[in-house]
Amino acid sequence: MPEEFHRIRRLPPYVFAEVNQAKARARAAGEDIIDLGMGNPDSPTPPHIVAKLIEAVQDPRTHRYSMSKGIPGLRRALAGYYQRRFGVGLDPETEVVVTLGSKEGLANLAAAITSPGDTILVPNPSYPIHQFGFIIAGAAVRSIPATPDEEMLRALDRAVRHSVPKPTALVVNFPSNPTAYLADLDFYREIVAFARRHEIWVLSDLAYAEIYFGTRVPPSILQVPGAKDVAVEFTSLSKTYSMPGWRVGFAAGNPRLVAALARIKSYLDYGAFTPIQVAAVAALNGPQDCVEELRKLYRERRDVLIRGLAAAGWQVPSPEASMFAWAPVPPAYAQMGSVAFSKLLLARAKVAVAPGIGFGEHGEGYVRIALVENTHRLRQAIRNIRGFLQAGSGLEKADDVPLERVVNA
After folding, report:
1. Is the pLDDT of residue 144 over 90?
2. Is the pTM of this model over 0.90?
3. Which of the following CATH numbers is that of domain 6-44+290-405: 3.40.720.10, 2.30.42.10, 3.40.630.30, 3.90.1150.10?
4. What is the dihedral of CA 211, 240, 254, 122, to 10 degrees?
């Protein structure tokens, strides 16, 4: 019998699981690790959302199977959010489906629309599910630049002319994980025109729509006239309302794509627990000051981190959006690569970050730093990093760091 199943052979070990294992081993050894590796929000879910969950769960009628595509009230709430936030009208019956987080939705839609051997265009670097959802489904992934500019547009043109078979789908993600790049509506107009011209589906990941820090407010691709002819967009409550463990997300847009996802899901799940969906309605329809408070919190953390690292001698661009900083490996350590640098940072500074290579080959030379610790802990991390950098490159010491300390994304 084969040593590994076919689809498993196409997958490397899941990067975030390896991060958790490395941190767990360090902590089990009594080390105080400051975890800036995984994008796992640390703020509590707003009280009015928790209160609605408690209220709903006390009704035994909510304990039965739910609806795979989401309860009607939650689909209407998502449509209301799109109307208020983007001026986009959605039909809750045909253009919205509730998912178990955006990751599940992306993976299941990939399974629904992909034939073995299809060519899919995915930015590199990008969040792993963007490429591996399609790889699991049997597709071949062609990497394109991750920047929302002419470079990506030229790469898309080359991909259409030189890929066999012609690409069937394109993934975009702005604000981006891991790079924090932010697109504007003009760029989305170019993407929609390209997709309509070449009959290519667009999957837009908008999970970080509400985590922005300046005057540039992230738009939705669905704001472009004609976008619903080719595009579906994934959103999530995880970051906006600090609800990562609740696993509530959405797909909205093209009715054919939404129907395909709903049909696949009807065979796989009964939807999220109904009280969670009821609480999600309270999140979308209730007071939104909690969203602004979270935005201010991440902005404060960003400013503490970026200023502190600059004072420590590590120049990192200040992100306009998302909960991540995309940091070039300091020049003295560049030859080590992102995995070895992260390995050394964990061992010497007790700070966990995510090596850029975990997000694709073009992420090499960077690490992703998540804003998921309070400002006190961030300042402690900065002090540790300053001491690490001032101690010297440590290149000659890299080989004596135990292999299990590698943080692999």
Report:
1. yes
2. yes
3. 3.90.1150.10
4. 50
